[in-house]
Amino acid sequence: MNKILLIIQREYLSRVKKKSFIVLTILVPVLFIGMFALIGYLAVKGDDLGDEKKVQVIDESGTFSGKLKDTHSITYVYTTGNYDSAKASFIEDGYNFLLHIPPASSSVQIELLSEKKPSATTIEAIETGLSNIAEAQQLKLAGIDTAVLAQAQKRIEIKAKQITEAGEKDAQTYTAYAIGFLSAFLIYICLFIYGTQVMRGVIEEKVSRIVEVIISSVKPFQLMLGKIIGVGMVGLTQFILWIIISVGLSMVGGTMMAGKAMQSKQMAQVQQTVNDHKELKQVQSPDKGMATIMQSIESIPVVYTISCFLFYFLFGYLLYSAIFAAVGSAVDNETETQQFMLPITLPLIFTFALAQSFIINNPDSSLSVWLSMIPFTSPIAMMIRIPFGVPAWQLALSMFLLVLGFVFTTWVAARIYRVGILMYGKKATYRELAKWFMYKE
Amino acid sequence: MISIRNIVKQYGGYRALSDVSIEVEKGTVFGLLGPNGAGKTSLIRIINQITAPDSGTILFNGEPLGRHHVERIGYMPEERGLYKKMEIGEQIVYLARLKGLSRAEALRRSKYWFEKLQIQDWWHKKIEELSKGMQQKAQFVATVMHEPELLILDEPFSGFDPVNAEIIKNEILELNRKGATIIFSTHRMESVEELCDSIALLHQSHKILDGKVKQIKNSFRNGTYILECEGAGITPGADAPFTILDDNRTDEHHHLRLKINDGGSPNDVLRYMLPLATITRFEEIVPDMNEIFISTVNKQDK
Q1: Does any domain span residue A410?
Q2: B35-45 as b/e, with b when 16 or more CB fall inside 10 Å?
Q3: Structural domain tally of chain A?
Q4: Residue B11: its chain A contacts at CB < 8 A?
């Protein structure tokens, strides 16, 4: 036992002391926060930052003249005159675009000319403007008052509520989405990162031949377990540091933003844009949107979610890293690992792909439930489901199966590992691995 | 010290050791010889409990070999290896602690060895920054730090330059004088004759020869001698007590390799030759370990 502790200590310290660990630990939260800050900034200021576009409008129908409203980036200038002559001269006249609207009776389509390809947002903005005017025009012709219509078109918001033992509570679907997705994504990425680290460590020991010296002092199983636990602790350390640094940075950033007296409207816009772009248009009062988000974040059971996350990260990691260790022991260099990597990572990739599309939309379908039970897929699938609420018995069963799965893979991996680390120059095949597994102690 | 009894080890369809029994006495230097693939490394790994035999037993000082014995054994594998990116001093201490030493004790002893082998300036260097010879010295220190009663060295001199090989050889002999039993596996025969008290020869998983070096060499004597004399040489008659195997002569020098007839003695040869020529050299040809090794292995192959 003492010797396992020694191995854990070495594995842990040798990694934590590395420059790459320190750099990564600091850089990731900075980049992450920076990225969000940039997205937020662009969402607020994006329109202002874009080029000013001048559009020359030749309206032969007479319906649209003077009605298209200028936006941040688009200015409409109405001219009369010949379309063909304008075509030849609009660029020299200082316009970026030439919008030609044929007479209403004509079958010719509306055309937008430009020197360069217009961006999709520009086209969309012009199309929306034209459609709105055309729609109002048609309604008016049909004798419908647009003011009455606007009132009739009140947006209806559904308030989703969940029935729980404590009574009703607000079901914050969007927040559940975000939390579920984020934690599943973190687990997915980290299983790869730290699993690969274990594998590299095993290969390093094998290639440098120190493994034979070490297992003349300790059992191969002790070495394998020590390495897995040591690397796992590095992972946890990195997580905790990431969280601390992120929280610290956001607090500093938040104070700075507040110092600049950023208007609540803008804040809300940032939040909304990050959250869901579509929603932006429909939010009536920005203050209300902001409040909803704050409220929904508060409604998440933080301790419960974080505990589940740590559990699934830890045991998911233990389960997979044992397999990664076995693969590392079977090969002589990293390129040889390719043939084994796909079957190992397939369940992860498959679950993660499903997680984004299917599980997150159908958290209680039988496929989702099954995936959250199978130990190879449950760390990702269950984390998607947890924010939506999972029955206690399902959670307990899933955790139990995951622990069982971890014990099983570690047992299998250890049997392959003990033989593999002493095999050199032999091309490892699945048959070979099966043979190693069968060897007596 | 170590009794190896009827060890069998099979890897799938490949037999690495068949019914091998060897006795290694306390305080001796024991040579484990054999061509590549004979089973030396398999046997060494079994003694180190890296792998377990399919059948057979090993006794360590009379008790069945168990986990607690690893701290009394030091092992230097043929393929040397240390962590490339770890500082050498830290690494030695780590390996010693895995053998059960406390940190303080490991530090104290590593200082002693580093000074003895004059590598103390390299304490903070990483292995990858060291020369090959320096790495080998570090590896040796890692092997002997915990003062093992049994030292198992697989090809200990391979990779050393002559100067460092001499240093390590002397260290090994000094440890042996202090009471350590040493097993080393090699196929370099000159070091065997110089160092080993006893040997065992493995070939294709079988032990084909073992015993004290002197006795083995004696048993391989076959009455062959070299005789040199001055002058144009002699031609022995049919009554000579020997047969000539090899005859090299010049005008003033005569070199003979001869085999004494059955029942004859060296004195008979001298008595016969003395009246005929001035003898300058008369010497028995004792087969060296290399010849014994090759002839025994070849005999086995036939």
Answers
A1: yes
A2: eeebbbbbbbb
A3: 2
A4: 439
CB contact under 8 A, A210 and B97: no
Among B49, B81, B94, select the one facing A212 at the smallest CB separation: B81
CATH 3.30.390.50 fits B2-218, yes or no: no
Asked if A232 contacts A314 with a C-beta cutoff of 8 angstroms, the reply is yes
Cβ-Cβ contacts under 8 Å, A217 against chain B? 70-71, 95, 98-99
Domain shared by A246 and A123, yes or no:
no
Nearest chain A residue to B96, by CA: A217
DSSP type of residue B302: -
Q: In what order do the strands lie in the sheet with B63-64?
A: B14-24, B2-11, B55-60, B63-64
A72 part of contact set with chain B, CB < 8 Å: no
According to the model, what pLDDT value does residue A231 have? 94
Tell me which residue in B50, B52, B98 faces A6 most closely, judged by beta carbons: B98
Of A152, A185, A218, the domain-final residue = A152
CA distances in angstroms from A100 to A73, A86, A128, B155, listed in the order given: 19, 10, 16, 90
- Per the document, the length of chain A is 441
Q: What is the pLDDT of residues A126-174, one digit of tens each?
A: 888 888 888 888 888 888 777 777 777 766 666 666 665 555 555 566 7
Report the complex ipTM.
Answer: 0.81
pLDDT tens per residue across span A165-205: 555 555 566 777 778 888 888 889 888 889 999 999 999 99
- Segment (H or E) for B105: helix B103-116
